[in-house]
Give the backbone structure.
Amino acid sequence: MTISCKRVYDRVEKDDGYRVLVDRMWPRGLKKTDLAYDEWCRDVAPSSGLRTAFHNASLNFDEFGTAYRRELGTNQPAWTPLLDRAGHGNVTLLYASRDRERNHARVLAAFLIEHYKKEND
């Protein structure tokens, strides 16, 4: 199982597998016809309030990650299909954030990997 993260503006690669946009809003400046993606999972993205708090620096990244994981814990129907898909091949989580290391897709990927390991131990 491989779950990776990429910016929506990055080049598509053969080993990306199933490409899923995990942002709540469509990326700025990008036409829907210009993005190679298989699915748009808005419901797995952080809530608008949480996203706003992080972008306004009301929360640091660790606080954001904790709060986002809490949201994910109460929203299992949104992320279970991604976990199932990852069990059958590569999944690439697409995001628009400029920060490649501190973004919700990274938190989501770690969350999914942890749950996959728990289910398959």
